[in-house]
Amino acid sequence: MPEGAMKAWIESSHLSGANAAYIEELYESYLDNSQSVSAEWREIFQQLPKVEGADVEYRHSEIRDEFKKLAQEPHKTLVVSGGSDAKQVKVLQLINAFRFRGHQNANLDPLGLWQREKVRDLQLSHHDLSENDFDREFNIGSLAVGQESMKLGDLYKALKTTYCGSIGAEYMHITSTDEKRWIQQRLESVQSQAILSVEEKEEIFKGLVAADGLEKYLGAKFPGAKRFSLEGGDSLIPMLKQLITRAGTQGAKEVVIGMAHRGRLNVLVNVMGKNPSKLFDEFGGKHDEILSSGDVKYHQGYSSDFVTPGGNVHLALAFNPSHLEIVNPVVMGSVRARLDRRDCNAGDLVLPITIHGDSAIAGQGVVQETFNMSQARAFKVGGTIRIVVNNQVGFTTSSPQDTRSGEYCTEIAKMVSAPILHVNGDDPEAVILATQIALDYRNEFKRDVVIDLVCYRRHGHNEADEPSATQPLMYKKVKKHPTPRQIYAEKLNAEGTLAKARTDELMAYYRKLLDEGQCTVEQWRPMTEHSVDWSPYLGHDWDDAYDHEISLDKLKELANKVSSIPADHHVHNRVRKIYDDRAKMASGEKLLDWGMAENLAYASIVDAGERVRITGQDSGRGTFFHRHAVLHNQDDASRYLPLQNIREGQGPFDVHDSVLSEVSVLAFEYGYTTAEPSGLTIWEAQFGDFANCAQVVFDQFISSGEQKWGRLCGLTMLLPHGYEGQGPEHSSARLERFLQLCADHNMQICVPSTPAQVFNMLRRQVVRPMRRPLVVMSPKSLLRHPLAVSSLDDLATGVFHNVIGEIDDIEPSNVERVVFCSGKVYYELLEQRRKNEQTNIAIIRIEQLYPFPEQELQKQLAKYQHVKQFVWCQEEPQNQGAWYCSQHHFRAALPKGGYLTYAGRAASAAPAVGYMSVHVKEQQALVHDALKVE
Ligand code: AMP
């Protein structure tokens, strides 16, 4: 439609800027379904001019833009053209105002302490309406109440009940009309009131009895002991039980829950079905699992089954450290692994639930990262139910004005247009309705949704804490405030749903269960549903023998496959050259480089029917242009992955460029590998030092998860490392930090130096049944180093050498000095020694720094028992690299009379210099030092 004509129409209809958003909504709805708007609006929209000669509606974007422009203009009065009643339009505006802003005047705070301004848009007078109009019948547009018109009085009441009751729904920020309409339908059709049977109400009540009963019992039995009580947020228990039951009824087979410490004991006993007697034992200092460190009771995970009308649902509560929100990506990763195993891309079969604190969800950046991941190809899980236990006190003592800048703690959810249902925790029926809507929304649209359970914290941060010292007014109120169980009991008694005798009986029954130490969850079942058997992976160590054979014929066959590109898939010239070279490597014309060996490792794994998953920044191509596992067609941008075309029935090969984050991606992959022992899972850092941003995941999960929680994890981390003059930030993967975390054989730290080594290292991680994290200092320039090449025969040995001895023809009896090293510096030492024609120096590479391969090193040193001079050569400054953490291992291996010295950079605050000339000088000096026979 010509611009002028549209403008003229809009102006002639007196539709003002203030109404633009609403009319836009209405028009969108009309375009979807003309019957969804009132006859009056239908008539107006039908009168809109059409594009000349075309039988189609004019573009909605044009109208929208025009409305936007008008929205900037001062308010004009809206009068529907044709002389009809101007109030009709005002009524529609009023409905829209409640949809947009009703939540701001909803009754959300159980303590009634929130001071919220009256929202003008929700007042009749703001819309030139008054109680005098209450008896007039108006068209109600798309209000989903099953009728076309209502008296204003009834409408106003319905709007207040729907949008300003115990549920405050924020959803008008959602851009999808379908989703908005869906939510409107769910809320408006029942005026935000749950329709519940007597049995359902009793079930809710039982949940509150359990929540309250356990805390009181623990408080009485173990006074002053830390339990991080749920009290105040009791509705969480019926909410979780409702979620699981409904999810199971709708077909879910597993639910994975992540939460911090607050309320965790309650969830463990009253949802997961942990036997209370076990918990009491833990309070008494007893434990039945012998782990090398173990963990406190409020960080423990749990697994069980839960019966629902749709069958048993397996429940897994993730173990978590006290780092609050970091468990969220772990849960998502665990869910993704379970979905992949069930071949369920949509997400129907496994439900993630993450439980947040109000300050943590607003304060911690990892929350934003997980929202950002929620629809990304590599990480989507079909939507997460995110529950905020909003007790209005941050960690120990902070008030909302100190912990956030937004109106609600949940603002971050809007970045992915997630609906947010704020709900008053003292109204458990509203909580159940919000829960039902949230789950159904997640299952319908496969997107994240937030339930903000507005509640309070009955005690201090822990039970020994005195909250009145810092929150005097709040705690004055809390002390007098009845518990959710008391409030609901009174309601049920008063409405005659449950007699007092019955509510008392249910409380006594719960107490009896605790006294007898019996499981309190009727729906609890022993585990049958979980689909992985971890027993083949238990009890192994890194030096166990394993079947590493791979035949040369198989390798040649795979080499041909990974180097073939379909004729009609036109790749970039530089990629073509790499693949041409790979074809030569396959035919034996050329030795294999790093990229080829790595791709062959993946090929051999998927050929054996196992899966490979790689994520990281640039992982498809490889940061340094070496992998090219994904081939982009230059004609149409289509993708071809040779590794997905190895053979019919092969294992899945998934490589994804990740979102631009380290911490949440690594946590996700940790979650993935703790839920999936088979195959190879790799996280790759763009540069090794970026792993810094994920330090919490290394410290709290990867290095200590097995020792604290008995949870194995076979994750491999490729961290590019090497001193090539790229400055302080891109030289070091901070090897020393990983070595410092090593004990109890908790993880492996490897520095492979040849293509055959990377091939066999990656295969070893899958073929050997041990599942422990593998941290790899992976190369950069070595990817293309002319000496860093291997033959197919080298690969076919199938063995990863933890130590590699001298490769040149050096007579051991002539050796006066032995140099130990790892990584790229080896080639510099080798070349320099060859240049110097030194035949009295042997170089030994330590390819696995932890667990330290003592026996293999001893074996290599057997021929150098006469040598006195041993030197550890490293590129890193002396306070970094392996020197301080590993020298005791080197020393222990020396022959009698031998001594160890250091050749490397001087201690330095920064990992590397930023000036190329200084870098070169330092590098030459350390190589020179290492080769200087004394
Ligand atoms: P889940 O499916 O996470 O509830 O786990 C079910 C059971 O599998 C647990 O009770 C453990 O016995 C075992 N299991 C799960 N994950 C691991 C793991 N990462 N390492 C060892 N055993 C595990």
UniProtKB/TrEMBL annotation:
One of its GO terms (cellular component) is cytosol. SUPFAM superfamilies: Thiamin diphosphate-binding fold (THDP-binding). Its cofactor is thiamine diphosphate. Residues 592-785 form the Transketolase-like pyrimidine-binding domain. The keyword Glycosyltransferase does not apply. This is 2-oxoglutarate dehydrogenase E1 component. One of its GO terms (molecular function) is oxoglutarate dehydrogenase (succinyl-transferring) activity. Keywords: Oxidoreductase, Thiamine pyrophosphate. It comes from Colwellia chukchiensis. Its EC number is 1.2.4.2. SMART domains: Transket_pyr. InterPro entries: 2-oxogl_dehyd_N, 2oxoglutarate_DH_E1, DH_E1, KGD_C_sf, ODO-1/KGD_C, THDP-binding, Transketolase-like_Pyr-bd. GO terms for biological process: tricarboxylic acid cycle. It is an enzyme of class 1 (oxidoreductase). Belongs to the alpha-ketoglutarate dehydrogenase family.
